[in-house]
Fold this protein.
Amino acid sequence: TYVVTDNCRGCRYTECVTVCPVECFHLDDSMTYIDPENCIDCGGCAPACPVGAIEPDYRLAADKKFWIDVNRRRAAETPVISARLVPLPGADERRLALGR
Ligand code: SF4
């Protein structure tokens, strides 16, 4: 399954939502999460993310593996997002700071 990681926090561009064919994405006030029960591993969302926040679980660095559990837990607790939102304030500044 694909996993949303820390770069999303505070940006939340939500381009991912426009490419996901199966409405995997959930969100809270700070970021999005992928529901691992629905993800079909199409890979479409990863290149669509302007801040490179999304990776397949098997490619996560050891210090990012905890995001697998975070996505599973938070996707179960938060609503589905089915349309793109305006990014969070400061998203462009954060993206530039990440060198994107
Ligand atoms: Fe949706 Fe495909 Fe990304 Fe899974 S890999 S969250 S199915 S766009």
Observations:
- The radius of gyration is 12 Å.
- Helices lie at 15-19, 45-48, 66-77, 91-97.
- Residues 2, 19-20, 22, 24, 34, 39-45 surround iron/sulfur cluster (CB under 6 Å).
